Hints:
By secondary structure, the chain is mainly beta. It has helices at 8-20, 26-37, 63-75, 127-130; strands spanning 47-48, 57-61, 79-82, 86-90, 93-95, 99-102, 109-113, 122-124, 139-140, 143-150, 162-167, 170-177, 184-187, 203-210, 217-220, 226-233, 238-243, 254-261, 266-271, 276-278, 281-283, 288-292, 298-305, 315-317, 324-325, 328-334, 341-343, 346-348, 351-357, 364-366, 373-379, 385-388, 425-428, 437-439, 453-455, 460-463.
Amino acid sequence: MTMRDCPEDRRIARRRLLSAAATGPALVALGAASVARAGTAPAPGGLDVRDRGARGDGRADDTAAIQAAIDAASARGGGAVTFPPGTYLSRTLTLRSRVHLVGSGAEATVIQLAPGTEGDLIRSEGFFEKTGTNDKGGIDSFGLRHLTLDGGRPRNRKGCGLRVYGYGYILDGVRIRACAEVGLYSEWSTEGMVDRGDSMEAQVANLKVHDCGAGGIHFRGPHDSQFVNCIVYDGTTWGVRLEQGEKYSAVGCQFVNAHVWGRNQYAWKIDADFATLVNCMGEWAGAAQVHVNGNDATIVAGRFFGDSKDRHVGIEIGSADRVVYGTQLDARMSDLAGGALKFTNEGGSSKIKALIYQTAGVPYVGTPAATSLLELIVNGIEGGSATAFPRGSLSWNGGAAIVRHLSGVAAWEPAQVSHGAATWTTVRVERAAPGDTVAVGYSEPIPAGALLSGIISERTRKFR
Length: 464
């Protein structure tokens, strides 16, 4: 379901929620402004594709003319290939090192995959020879600016918008849409140094990817790359996927001001270590808004939303075959009845802080490791509110979930524990051992900000 399909009242409620928490760190705003000013003017002195015979009328096959301009720029050591306004039909184009495709603006310049191509729109030179090899080569120092790539879906049933094996490139002001496979696929080696060019990191700004059949962005390198001001929606499988392996690496990639929404299984699929998301969003993905399956991920100033009727999950940590350590999270989450947090295989050393609003379901499922620190503020369930600072195993003394539900009225459990009526009460919990986590309930409505849980440091503990 997209925003256009969403009932009006849900859109209004979500916009109100966003406006209430719209402020982000000042550094995010400054960074975005700096990127927006950078690289916005087409490079002078480029090779105009129309001088090579391209028509840009949306009917003629412009493949030969565009490829001739790319090859000519490459032969002279690189440079800009420029596209006046128009729609350029093309079969697969081969991109080479230090060649920059520069349009007249997104939607002003559209390069569209010709019907029946059944392949990629733009592919890096030597891609199939390099992919999966961990080679330090590939094309380098290339770029795309101020244009739209259209994969021609459903008239083409195969192909990516941009498929590259390379490094040190720049994408700015690019839109990629309607691809049968993934919109942007990028891969490079696990190596940290390059044989030519200044460094391996890619820089991506002001990118929009949507309506693709096998993901919006599938990034396998170069590692430590940076993405600023990105929008991805309706990617079918995932919006953004970061992945590392023995022969490729997206370790250490950073996203600032990125929004993933719509028809996706996962909005964010993080299968690489040391990923960073700052002021990023995910909403309405079917499996989870974020799946953290890499170590030492950092997600700060995040906002993640679901549909309570579909029991969406917010952030899942770990998987059946991978233990995940060191997650740092500070996020706002709403209407995630399947669990704002899902601890599938959380290994510890994590610091997780979340402000959760939901009117159905549970705030979390699963159990984090005893060495992780959680701070959860939960509102909305049956009109009640409470603050929980659980640390360690999140369970009642006896095994049931601690935040079973936060209603306006709660009772002590286990049953043999007596009520406490005073503001500060010392309660003896039978059979509790140091390090156990227990929960406190009230016979009166829970006060806003009440401490709902605590750690047994001895045989007794004071609760508020």
